[in-house]
Amino acid sequence: QVQLVESGGGFVQPGGSLRLSCAPSGTIVRGKAMVWYRQVPGEQRELVASLTSGDDSYYRDSVEGRFTISRDNAKNTVYLQMNSLKPEDTAVYYCNTWPLGAWGQGTQVIVSS
Question: Which of 81, 85, 103, 113 is geometrically suited to a Cys-Cys bond with 68, CB 3.0 to 4.6 A?
Answer without folding.
Answer: 81
